Each structure stands twice: as C-alpha cells, then as structure tokens.
Amino acid sequence: xxxxxxxxxxxxxxxxxxxxxxxxxxxxxxxxxxxxxxxxxxxxxxxxxxxxxxxxxxxxxxxxxxxxxxxxxxxxxxxxxxxxxxxxxxxxxxxxxxxxxxxxxxxxxxxxxxxxxxxxxxxxxxxxxxxxxxxxxxxxxxxxxxxxxxxxxxxxxxxxxxxxxxxxxxxxxxxxxxxxxxxxxxxxxxxxxxxxxxxxxxxxxxxxxxxxxxxxxxxxxxxxxxxxxxxxxxxxxxxxxxxxxxxxxxxxxxxxxxxxxxxxxxxxxxxxxxxxxxxxxxxxxxxxxxxxxxxxxxxxxxxxxxxxxxxxxxxxxxxxxxxxxxxxxxxxxxxxxxxxxxxxxxxxxxxxxxxxxxxxxxxxxxxxxxxxxxxxxxxxxxxxxxxxxxxxxxxxxxxxxxxxxxxxxxxxxxxxxxxxxxxxxxxxxxxxxxxxxxxxxxxxxxxxxxxx
Length: 452
Fold this sequence. Notes:
Helices cover 48% and strands 19% of the residues. By secondary structure, it is an alpha+beta fold.
C-alpha cells in the first residue's frame, strides 16, 4: 500500500491510497467465488456458471462489494500512517476496481487548524455580568398570576355596565359589508375584558355594555390573516350581550398553596419555590450572557481557516433546530413555505462563528488539561433526572444505546472550559439595560461609505 498526502489548504488534505493489483484480484476472486455458489442464472446449474457469465450479470455488484472490502481493510491504516485526523466524514473518489489493475482511491477531508495560543491571551478577560435578581415586586406578580389562573367565574348579580376585568357573554354575527360572513356566527362566547384574548376593538366596544344591549365593533384584518374570508377586510361584528360574569380570586393563604399540590404545605413554601425558580432563571440568564461574552472574545484570539465541513454540519444542525422549533409551536415548515437553502445561507455566518469559537475552546481545553470524569457524567445525569423526572440510570442507558455519550462528554468539556475561563476573568456587575443597549448597537446595520 502506498500513501501520499497533499495539502489543499490550511485545513484541507487529500490522501491518495494505491493498492496493488494482487489485492484487487484477491478481493474480486473471493467475491465471485461467493457469488458462484448462490447465483441463479437461467441455463446454468447452481455453482456451474462460468466466470465470464457471472461478470456479465454481477459485475457492478462485485465491484461495489470489492470497494467496500478494499476500503474497509485499508482506510484506517492509511490515516494512521499519515497521522491525520479528519474532523468530519471524508469524501471518497475512485474508479471501480478491475482485475489485474491497481486500485487507487482518494480521501479529501478537513483537519483542525494548527495555531498558537498563549494562556495569557484568555486569562483575565473583561466581562460584564447583568444585575439580575428576583425582587419582592416580581414575587408578588407571580403570586397574582397564580391567583388569576385559579379564579372562578360567577354571574354578576348586580345590574351595572361591564368593566375591565369582567367577562361578557355574547352571541355574535360577523358581516363583510352588509353580507353575512360565512361561518361568522357564534353563541355564548366569553369575552374577557382586558384579557387580550379577543380583538381589541371588540373588548373596547363591550366596555360599559349592559345585559340586553346590542353592540357593534369593526375589526380590520391584515392581508396575511389565515382566514381568507377575512384577510385584508374590515369585518363588522354585531353582538348581543347575554350576561356578565366576574372573576372571583381565592384568598392568598395556606389553603390556596395546598390546593396547588401536596408539595406546598404552606404559603411560605409556595413563595420559597417561586423565589427559587426565579433565582435559577436569572442565574441561567447571567450565565448565558457571560458565556456569550466569553465566546465573542475567545473567537478573536486567533485567525485561521475554518473547516468548511464543520461549518456545513453546524449549519445543518441549526436549520434542523429551527424547523423543530417551528413544529413545536404548531407550524408545519412545508406549509409555511420554508426555503431550506435560503435558511442555510442565513445561518452560515453564525455557524462559522460557532465553529471557530469551538475550535479555540478546544485548544484552551488542551492547554488547561481539562478532562471529564465519571463523576462529571454522573452529576450531569442527576441534573437531567431532576429536570425530566426520569431515573438517572435509565437516561444513561438511553445515551449509551444511541451512542450519544461522546456528544455529552464534549458538552461537559466545553462547559468546564468556559467555567475555567470565567474563573480567571475580571467580572463587573452592570445594569442589564447597558448590555441591551450595547447588543442593539452591535446588531444595527453599519452605514456604507461606498458612494457607488
């Protein structure tokens, strides 16, 4: 076996592997001997068909099987000989093998870029951490929202006009001009005044209405409204007020807390849980902001060619994640007219940034000699167990079965590396508005100086 390496770019390599004709003949003879015993060819008894006939009927199949055998037996050995490690699946280029001829195949693949990075470059980064903390006011808002969701509707006994916070029961008929709108009739519809669940024009029209009143409201629908009968039109609603209801909230006390589930024995326990959830949420937001800043700065520590194959993989993953989010929100990507090629092009720049930052993080991981341990993996599965309610061992079995353990290990390595960088950084607490303003400036389109 002869192996030759050619450098196509800073990160792309072409490895040419040449196998002698004797190896090709051996592989083809083996395959034809196997075919001969099982081939069913009209006019020949099993095992008696001549080689020339087998080649005529099964030539392509034999060549394909020979390729698999020749590649499988030499591919890893060739890479070991070069000392190269592809970052993604190589591209293969070859002509079909033939008896009496050498077999030559080429591997084209990307490798990780080689660059220098001093520890001093990423130590002492200047980071800004937003002051995000749960307040008493926000706690009270969360409790109020809980009370609102647990409210019950009761008929209004007193005779008075409807007001914000009431629920108005109406029958309605919709009109397109003077024509009755097909499907635009409904009875006993609850309209929550101020709830934002109905069109604003309808809620406004019903404020101060009384039982027995007839109320009209005109609503304009945009051209892209999903109901084609209403899109781009002004629809008139004629509503008959049949009843008024008011929301009755429960008392904010221990009984209310216990009504939410057995885990809350008192109102204080409920407050502690909400406060803990808010602390966790804001802690995650602070971590995400610091993570973003670290990646932004780390990405500028070295310049090199980014492997196109890794960018393609990351772009494909980002497109897949976007489609999945659409589906989770109830939208069909195909029905939405999603152009995957355009979407991939839009994501490509961000994918390049992520790949570059990931490569430099990998360099820092090596410089800091950061590794993952079984304890790290066990701790991660315990966290996942708490989030999902599934036993940690069951989750571990799923990861092993789906060969997902390497990706989990890589994620833990990355997180430990980020934490190491963060530990050596200079962190300043700032107003979240300052970071939001800075982010807005960075995303704004720069003015062009090109007068052409």
